[in-house]
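Incident review: delayed structure delivery

Summary: a single-chain prediction request sat in the queue longer than the usual turnaround. Root cause was a stuck worker, restarted by the on-call engineer. No data loss occurred. The affected request and its eventual output are reproduced below so the record is complete for anyone auditing the incident later.

Affected input:
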Amino acid sequence: MKISDENTEIEVEIRKKKIKNLHLYVKPPNGKVTVSAPLSMSDAAIKRFLQTKLAWIKKQIAKFAEQPHQTAHEYISGEFLYIWGERYFLQVEEIERLKHKSRLILQGNHAILTIGKTSTVKQRELFVREWYRTELKLKVSEKLPKWEQITGLKASDWQTKHMKTRWGTCNIKTGKIWLNVQLAKKPPECLEYVILHELCHLVVRKHNRQFNALMDKFMPSWREIQHILNGHDFDFKNASPCS
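Output delivered after worker restart:
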């Protein structure tokens, strides 16, 4: 579906689902616009809603256009990695894999990756991902007990997982939460926000007034942190439960 004014035409991806409310997203890194809509909502009604939000959508797309974007990693010297919100220049040292173990260490503003000469891009990617996982586990072991004590809410268990569309998720029946490995790239306060978010979902399933009030109680600045974490998403009457 396309929406437009006299100066702009924007393509919008529409996904109809078994949901009650409309959800509008402008997603990083390029400002892709998507809408999740109830099955019963007509295309005409969706388009009317989008036209009312056109100015907001254009503003968010412009913000993404102003931000520097990192191209896909090849894991070679000269690229950079984000670790806990800080940017490190990647320095790759190739070795004979049989003689030494792969490793990633931080020195000043450099991330030094020691890896086998014959390793593929995919193998380097997976190694770095597991390094992020180790970093995340250490930080979660510190931050989760802190927020459990603050809130009085407790997860039955937790794990890390590489996810493309969510920063965290939980199972309200079992009390278990999962945290995205990629959180290790973000500032530490983003991890704390996601931990609190998932703990709150253990008692409030939906993103409603009760949920927001609980977040406000324990982290008044959560909206600002969410903005840093997610880019510029607009969730219209969001009622999506965690899985």
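Verification: Helices lie at 43-52, 54-66, 121-151, 188-201, 209-218, 222-230.
Action items: add queue-age alerting; document worker restart procedure.
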